[in-house]
Every structure is written in structure tokens, then in C-alpha cells.
Amino acid sequence: MFLTFKEEPNVVFKGLLTPLLVGAILSGCAMGPEYQAPDIALPEEWPEHVFLSDKQHHDWSDWWRQFQDPKLDALVKQATSENLELRLQLQRIQEARAQLGMSRAEQFPTVALQAEASRERTPGAMLPGNGDMEPIRDLIESTNNMFSITGVLEYEVDLWGRLAREREAAEAMLEESAFAHDAARIGIITDVVSTYFNLRSAEAQYRITENTLASQAESYRLEQLRFDLGDTDELALRQAQSELETSRAELPGLRQRVRLLEGALAILVGKSPAELFAELDFGDSQLDEIVLPSGMPSVLPSDLLQRRPDIRAAEATMIAANARIGSAEASRLPSLNLSAFLGSSTADTTDLFTSSAETWGLGASIAGPLFDFGRARAQVETAEAQAEQANTQYRATVNTAFNEVRDALVTYDTSGERIDTIHKQVEAISHTYDLAKIRYREGMTSFIEVLDAQRAQHSAELELAEAMRDRLTATATLFKALGGGWEDPRDAVELAMQQEE
């Protein structure tokens, strides 16, 4: 229904005042359920560990610095500024911010300006062509100009809160994209740290194998001399040669692992294809020079819901889905649209904006679905189903997060125990190797015992390098599972915008 008012402007405005006031009152009555956070049973505390005091949290905002490796710090800084996945997440924030701006704008009137100019000829031949009508045809025939400038205003009164709900959903999705960016950032940093530790471990294993190879080469040389002098048999010589060639065969695989890890780390920090094929230099830090943090800041299990950005992102998605239910329900009800125009229309430009050229109009329309054969109801049911999915996804994200913390704590503990036992193993095997060499030189044992002890020492040293890597990686994984840095809480959207700028 479209209503056009022909009364004087003051009368018309009084007539429109009532629906405007009613619309303003009803617009505060948004349709749909109010959001309520799910009630999830959480543990009261974590298993006992070495936790730091609250006063020590301020040093942990950049948790990777606790390993005290300047090269690692530089790589993390490069990754957070150059990684393409993080750049993509920032671009998604831009898109979500634009969607929010559109939703906000929908709540305000639309004002447009129209300007027209036309010249039109009215032909006299439009009248019948007999002799009696000839004088009138001459009078009708004319050429006229028309100039007009008009301002048009259109406004939808948000009677049932549909636009407000859409704005609420857009705000939640902006938060979701910002939290998703934070989650991706923590993931990228942890990947950089873990890959860096893997690289240092692979380099250490390569050096261990090279040292073992050099020792075996010397043993083979001595056995060759002993064989030439007749002091040993060929079996001992071939055993020494076999161990030498076995270690030599390990080197290509270890070198390959080092190169592959260098490439993976280069991708994480955002290096270009040209840089990937150039010589990659990640410094010469040693695995045993990396400092292992002595503890971690304390975090209550209930705090994890606010600390983990992936949980916050899932909750934002749930808030948006809840708001869309109200928007769908409001779409089933009539909408009130107001319109007005004010302008000047004349045949001569000199008369524009004069009182005689003034033109105006006011209107209101009410429109709503009458028979849509269930379309609107299906939209509501769709929104409700999506809200249920978001709720389930949120609960699954929370469960996954707490399981990650549990696994990280277990790995953190067992990796510490493992590194202690392997240290003792290396010491014992090294002592055994030294004794075997002494006994062999004195002729008290066979060369095979020396080779066995040497082989055992090599394996133990490689395993120690792996254990040190696993301990460092477990520490980084635990930091990630607990939500990353320990800076003061800030709004995720604001943080993401600052990083973008």
C-alpha cells in the first residue's frame, strides 16, 4: 500500500509523526532470542606444574623470546609481517569491516539527489488533420524545456529490529575474523618455532654423524695399518669398513632433511620464490644453546575460554548465528518505509529554486508477506539450524582446546623425563666406549665390542638431539595450547586493526 499526501506540508508532517514515534518505540523490540553463552563443565584446575607468579607475566607477552635465541626472534618477527596466510586473514578482516559498515548504513536514511534537463517538441499533427483544426494544430505545436533538481529521502523504520539484528551479526563476524587472525598468528608463530627447533635438531644430527664418520674413518685407517702389519685379521678390517660406509650412507638423508626444513621455514617466514632458490641462511645457533624456560605463567581453566582466540572466534560465530534468527523472524513481519522528495522544476533555468518552481512530496508504504508458501518460515528454520550448528561447533572447539592442553602437559612432562634418562644413557655409553677402546688396545677384547659401543654412542647422541628438540617443541606447543602470549586483555578487533595499520 502506497499513500500519497496532498495536504499542506505542516499537516503532512504531523500525520507522519505518529508512525515515526511508533516505529522508534518498536525498533527497540528486536525479534529473536537473546544470546546466552553455553554452560560447559570445566575442570577447576590443571595438573600440578611449575607455574610462575602473576608478577612474572609481563615478560611473557612474546613467549618465544623466553628461548633467548635472537635468530628465532627475528624469524618470528619476519613471519608475523610477511606470512601470506596472515595477510589473507587481515584482508578478511577488511571484508568483515566493510560488511559491518554496510549494516550500519542500512539503519540510516538514504538521501539521493536527482538533476534532469530535457527538451521536448509537441507536434500539432497529433490532432485530426481537417481544415477546421488547422489553427488549433498550429497552437498546440511547440518546443518546451524542462529543468529539475530534486532531493529524495528514503527510510525504513526498523519496527521489529531486523536491521539491528543484521548489524549485530555483522559486528560478531568482524570479531570472528579478528579472532581467526589471532588464532592464525599464534599457529604461524608456533609453526615457526617448532620448525626452527626441528631444523636445529637435524643440523645437530648431521654434525653428530659427521663426527662419528670421522672417528670411524680413523678407526678404519688404524685397522688397515694393523692388518698390513699382520696384527689383526681381515674380519676386523671389514667390520670397521662396514661401520664407516653405514654412517656415510646416513649423511645424504640427513642433509636432505636439513634442506627440506630450511624450505619449510622459508615459506613460513614469507620468503619469495627467488629467495627460496637462493642460499638460505638461518644462522649458526646450536641446539644445546637454546634456553629452556623453567616454568610457565599460571592460567585457570576458566580463563582458557577467553584466552584462546579459536574459542573466541567460535563464540563470535555463534553470536552471529543467533542474531540471524531474529533477522529472519523480523522478515516475516510487515516493514514500514517512509519517503520524501523536495525539489525545483521549471521550464527556464532562471526560475529554479523560486517558490513557484517548488515541488515536494511525502509518502509511506507498508509491505509484508501474505502468502509465501512457507519461504519465510523456512528461512527462520534455516537460521535456527545454523545457530545449533554454531553451538555444537563451539562446544567441539572447547573440547579440542582442553584436550590440546591436556596432551601438551603430558608431552611436556614426558619429554622432560625422557631427556633426563637419555642424558644418563649417553654418559654411560660414552664411558663404555672409552673402556672398550682401552681394552681393545690392550688386546683384552675384540674389535666388534668397540664397534658396538661406538654404534650405541652414535644412536644415543642422535636420540638425545631428538629428545632436546621434542622438549623445546613441547614447550612451544604448550604455550600455544594455553592461548599464546600473556599480555593484558585487549579487544581482538582493535588489536587486529592496529596490526593491519
From TrEMBL:
Pfam families, per the entry: OEP
Location in or out of the cell: Cell outer membrane
Coiled-coil boundaries: 373-400, 448-475
One GO CC annotation: cell outer membrane
InterPro entries for the chain: MdtP/NodT-like, OMP_efflux
Keywords: Coiled coil, Lipoprotein, Membrane, Palmitate, Transmembrane, Transmembrane beta strand
Record flagged with keyword Lipoprotein: yes
GO MF assignments: efflux transmembrane transporter activity
PANTHER family: BLR4455 PROTEIN (PTHR30203:SF33), OUTER MEMBRANE CATION EFFLUX PROTEIN (PTHR30203)
Database matches in NCBIfam families: outer_NodT
Protein name according to UniProt: Antibiotic efflux pump outer membrane protein ArpC
